[in-house]
Structures are given as C-alpha cells and as structure tokens.
Design goal:
The complex is a heterodimer of chains A (about 230) and B (about 400).
Chain A (H helix, E strand, L loop, with lengths): L2 E14 L2 E14 L3 E5 L6 H8 L7 E6 L2 E2 L5 H11 E4 L11 H11 L4 H15 L14 H14 L4 E5 L7 H18 L2 E6 L2 H6 L2 E6 L2 E7 L1
Parallel strand pairs in A: 3-8, 3-9, 6-7, 7-8
Antiparallel strand pairs in A: 1-2, 1-4, 4-5, 9-10
Chain B lengths: L3 H10 L3 H41 L2 E5 L2 H4 L9 H9 L4 E15 L4 E9 L4 H4 L21 E5 H7 L6 E7 L5 E12 L4 H6 E5 H8 L8 E6 L5 H11 L3 E5 H4 L1 H39 L1 H10 L3 H37 L1 E2 L5 H5 L5 E2 L5 H27 L3 H4 L3
Parallel strand pairs in B: 3-7, 4-6
Antiparallel strand pairs in B: 1-8, 1-9, 2-3, 2-5, 2-8, 4-7, 5-6, 10-11
Helix pairs in contact in B: 1-13, 2-11, 2-13, 11-15, 13-15
Classes of the chains: A alpha/beta (about 230), B alpha+beta (about 400).
C-alpha cells in the first residue's frame, strides 16, 4: 500500500513556566492509504499535538513529516494553507460548522475555496450527503441539527475537497452512543468502500474498538502500535 | 468568482440582531444627522448665494475705476446704451442693465436714514434683479406709473422712517457738480429681501428722475449689472470685458462679495468635513463591535483557517461584514435624509421665530434643505472607506489567531 504520511523522529517541545515540556518526544510512524487508525492515550499524552502537526496546524521542533512525498516543514505559511485545503480533511470535536450557512453550504464551503464549479460542487455534496445519510437535511442550518447530524455534515465537509486523508480530533466526544455508532459506521463504510484514510485522536473506547490500528501515546512517546 | 465571503458576511450581521441593530441605528442616525445638517446648510448657502446674486451683486458689474473708491457721483460710465448693446452681443450674457448710484439721506417728518439710491431702468431691472418680485405691501407696485419721483423702499426702512405707501420721503444728496440737492419722492412700493442689511440701505427710484436731479450727462450711469447663463463663468467673461474695456473696472460677483464666494466654495467641502467627523466617531463604534464579533467567533475563524481559507480571504470576509454593517446603517440614514430633504426641500423649515439674526446676515428665515445625487455618492464612498479602515484592526486580530488553539476555544 502507498504511504500517505511518514513521520520521522518528531519532537515538539515548549517552555511552560520555565519547564521544558516535550509534548511529542521522538515519534516515528507512517500511515498508508486506506488506514482507519486511532491515536489514543490519556490527556496530555500528545495525541492532539501530534494530530495538529500532521495537519500543519502546529509546527514541530525537530524531525520531519512527509505527506505524499512533500516535507511539510519546507512549505511557507501560504503554501501550507493551500496544502491543507487540497490534501487534508479535518473533523473537529465541536463540529465547528458555520452557523449562518445551511448544511449543504457548509460542506460546499471548502470546495468554493478550491474554486470548484457550481455543478461539480452540487454533484459532490449530494453524493456525500447521500453517503453520510443527511440528504434530507441539506438545506437546514446547523442550529437545527442534532450533534450527530452536525458531525456528519462535518465529515461530508472534510471529504468534499477530496483530501488524501481525514484527521478527526475526538470526533465523538460530544455525541451520544447512537450517534457515535452511526458516525463510526459511516466513516468505516467510507474507509472500506472508498478507501478513505481516517486518523483519529481519541480516548473514546467505542472509536478504539472500531479502529483497524491503534497507536498509543504516553508522555509524547509511542508505547504501542497495534494493527488489529 | 464566488461570493461565499459576502454571503457569510451578510448573514453574520444578523446573528446578533440586537447588537447589530444598535450599531445600524447609530450609523443610520449619524448619517441622517450629518446629511440633514449638511442639506440644511447647503440649502441656506445656495439660497443665500442665489439671492445675493439676484438682488445685490448680479454676476458681473462694471464701474468707472474711480467710482468704486468713494462712490462719487461724477465718476460715471458714458455712452451707456452703446456699451450695453456691445455687452449684449456676448452669447454668455442673458441680461444687462444700467444703474445710477448715489449715497444720500432719506428723511421723513420724524426720522432720517442714510441710503443708497439706485436709479434703475424700471423694466430692464426686472431681468437682472428680483427685488421687483419681493414687494410685500398689498398696495405696493413696481413703478407701473409714469409719474415722476416715485420710490420703492424696504419694509425695514419703512418702519425706521415711519413711512408707508403714499408717504413722502425727502432725498438729499450731492449732484454731479458737487452741490447739495434733493427732492421729494412718493413711496409706491415696499419690498423685503432676505438680507435686512441690504434692505435698510437700498432704495429704488426711476433712473430718469434721479439723473435729472443729479444733472448727470445724457446716456451715462454709474453701474452696469450683467447676468450670465452660468454664474460660474463670471471670471472668464469678466476677463473678456476687462480686456475689451481697459478703462473700466469689471468685477465678478465674488470680487464684489467675497463672503458669498467663500460660502459657495464651502458647499463642496462641508459634506466631506461633516461626514468625515461623524464617520470617524462611528468608525470607533464599528471597530469595537467587530472586535467583539472576532472574539465570539474565534472557534469558527480557527476552523476556516484550519481547513484552508487563506489570510486574504479571511481579511476579505471580515472586511465585507464591516462594510455591509456600515452600509446597511448608511442606507437607512440615506433614505431618511432623502425623505427629509424632499419633504422640507419642498415645504421649507420655518425658523422665522428665531431667524432675525439670519436675515441680517442675508439668509432666509425659511430653510429649504438641498442634497444632490453627488452628495449621496460621496457619503457612500466615505462609508465604504470607513468600513475598510474599521475592518483592518479586527482583521489583524483574527489573522493573529492560531487555528489549532482557536478551534479548541
């Protein structure tokens, strides 16, 4: 399988009250196309920091992250923004939809940033809404959707730009059991049927149970990397 | 081109309806207040300029060069008829008249007052001056009699001299040869212009009567008053006449009344200055509101930056929201101003109860606000600029956010 992400000797250190904190401490790992992986660990283990660095939202102190052959540390801030737009899909814990746009407009938003044509946008969004099962809510604003429905819109939005992989930071943290199960079903289906790569940061056992690979971090280090 | 930024910006204004309404009201009231005030002032100035030109200065005046020094009677313009005929040939001239002017004393049995006697060609004068249209007493007339020694005085002088219609007034002045002379005139008309100072000083008599009493040479006068198609051409035409008649003093309306010229010039600047001050104050309120907006939407802005909206687009989104917020308020303010100006521009605002001071300065006691399309365009441009400037600081604050931290807020 093709390697999508290759991380080598990654360090992230920062100073907090005169103490040097190693948030990520020499992490090396890679992700292949079609993975459904969960980065797990207790709070402060560095999983979100690692995810942010993979997503280019945070800079690392040492090491390298190569995405699809590109060393992201070499990208300027402007190039990084474009790179994120075209290569990485994000799903956040709190959904983070734009409340003044409808579900469809929210998902379409990222494609508008990519200057996709209206026809292409509409076809893609309808296809994605079908896949995540919220077609009937396309013209509803986020405020009138349940948490689970909002997160499904967020997944559709993340997929709309046809990214190389999806980074999902605690995507189920605000969802009830049924919504979590439904969302995981959808993501797993997209992973299996369309070979979409999902990388989660989570401490939700329900996500861990469904992941094909579980990477456990503790104090910024990988303590286990288990493929089920 | 997609308009997603503008769409988000517009809808975002209405997220917090109460707060946005307060800002919109402030902008609307500010714009309305500014435009209405400027409209009133502009109306006053235009009215004042118009009236001054039509009652006092006309557009161009020609005198003997020495006459203007002391207004002495002997410094006349000879061959007035020929001069007028030549002036009339200019395509820019619409009316010309000649006047005899002499300072004198007007007296009744009880009182006296210094006056400027204007000896006029009673019919032609109507084409240059509107004093004939400003008669106030129902028994007034504008020299529609061939009888000698008739006089039209102002209402103010009428009160001062205690002289009404049909009263006799004794005019005393120096004649052409420097001898003191005088004659009795019968009041046939009482006028009232907007300028009480002009009214108190000026009386009108038939030129034939006064020339006879003054013993002025045949076909001579002291003043040629000219009206043009466009008063803005006065300088150009005056230069032509000045070159053509080098022995005469040719003056434009703004040489004759620099204050009026200053007022006319101020019209253009007034709106700019007024609105700039108002928008500067409103700009701070808008900046404050937008800073609150940025703080409230930290998570959302973090998300859009994280998923790949570049800095230029983030800036443009905040800028559009600021501009649209300002514009919506400005639109309401402009509509209110347009209604105000249209209604009162037609019906007038009567300030006669407090307007006496205005009249002595030459302003009407009924104000007719005036605003032109260009004034509204100027305001729209200023609001647009304010919106852009007011969005800079909030945008910088937004762009300083770190997406990874902002999405977690």
């Amino acid at each position: 399988m093709k390697k999508v992400i290759e991380i080598k000797d990654l360090f992230k250190t920062y100073v907090d009250a005169d103490i040097i904190v190693k948030a990520v401490n020499g992490v090396s790992l890679s992700f292949e196309e079609g993975e459904f992986a969960a980065i797990v660990g207790p709070s402060g283990s560095g999983k979100t920091t690692l995810l942010n660095m993979i997503g280019g939202l945070d800079k690392y102190t040492e090491g390298s992250i190569i995405i699809d052959g590109i060393d992201i540390s070499q990208l300027s801030s402007k190039q990084m923004i474009d790179f994120r737009l075209n290569n990485i899909g994000f799903v956040f814990q709190a959904y983070n939809l734009i409340p003044v746009l409808t579900a469809k407009e929210n998902a379409e938003f990222i494609m508008q940033l990519q200057h996709k044509s209206k026809k292409e946008r509409q076809e893609r969004i309808m296809e994605l809404f079908e896949a995540v099962g919220i077609s009937e809510k396309a013209n509803v604003r986020p405020g009138k959707l349940s948490g689970g429905q909002q997160q499904r819109v967020a997944v559709a939005r993340a997929l709309a730009s046809k990214p190389k992989f999806i980074l999902a930071d605690e995507p189920t943290a605000n969802l009830d059991s049924k919504s979590t199960a439904d969302l995981l079903d959808i993501m797993r289906k997209l992973n299996e049927e369309e070979n979409i790569t999902f990388i989660f940061s989570t401490h939700d056992q329900r996500v861990i149970d469904r992941a094909k690979r579980v990477i456990t971090l503790e104090d910024g280090k990988i303590i286990s990397d288990e493929v089920k | 081109m997609n308009f997603i930024n503008i769409k988000i910006a517009w809808r975002s204004i209405w997220r917090n309806r109460l707060r946005s309404s307060v800002v919109l009201m402030a902008v609307a009231i500010g714009i309305f207040g500014g435009l209405a005030s400027v409209g009133v002032m502009k109306g006053m100035i235009i009215d004042n300029v118009d009236n001054t030109l039509k009652t006092e200065t006309s557009h161009i005046q020609i005198h003997d060069k020495k006459f203007v020094e002391n207004n002495e009677v002997q410094f006349v313009i000879n061959n007035t008829s020929e001069l007028i005929n030549e002036i009339k040939k200019s395509p820019n001239v619409i009316a010309v008249t000649s006047r005899t002017k002499v300072f004198g004393m007007a007296s009744t049995a009880s009182k006296g007052s210094g006056v400027m006697l204007n000896g006029i060609d009673t019919e032609v004068e109507k084409s240059v001056s509107i004093v004939s249209e400003m008669l106030v007493d129902t028994n007034s007339s504008w020299f529609d009699t061939n009888k000698k020694n008739r006089i039209v005085i102002s209402k103010k002088l009428s009160k001062k001299l205690n002289a009404g219609i049909k009263s006799k007034i004794i005019l005393t002045f120096q004649d052409y040869k420097g001898n003191l002379t005088g004659a009795s005139f019968k009041v046939i008309g009482i006028y009232k212009t907007q300028n009480s100072m002009f009214d108190e000083l000026n009386v009108f008599v038939n030129k034939k009567d006064i020339n006879r009493i003054l013993n002025l040479p045949e076909n001579s006068s002291h003043e040629i008053a000219i009206m043009l198609n466009n008063y803005n051409d006065a300088k150009l035409i005056a230069k032509e006449f000045s070159d053509k008649y080098p022995d005469k003093l040719v003056e434009t309306w703004y040489d004759l009344n620099p204050y009026i010229k200053m007022s006319a010039d101020m019209i253009g600047f007034m709106l700019f200055i007024f609105m700039s001050i108002i928008l500067l104050a409103l700009g701070f309120a808008i900046v404050n509101t937008m800073l609150m907006v940025i703080l409230e939407r930290k998570k959302e802005l973090g998300m859009i930056m994280a998923i790949g909206m570049n800095r230029r687009k983030v800036f443009s989104m905040i800028m559009w929201e600021t501009i649209l917020l300002s514009f919506t308020g400005a639109f309401v303010g402009i509509i209110l101003s347009a209604i105000f100006t249209t209604y009162f521009g037609h019906n007038g605002i009567d300030i006669s109860s407090v307007g006496e001071g205005f009249e002595s300065a030459g302003y009407s006691s009924i104000l007719y606000p005036v605003l032109h399309l260009l004034d509204y365009v100027q305001v729209v441009i200023l609001v647009f600029i304010t919106g852009i400037i007011a969005s800079i600081f909030p945008s910088i604050r937004a762009l300083k956010m770190k997406p990874a931290e902002a999405v977690k807020e």
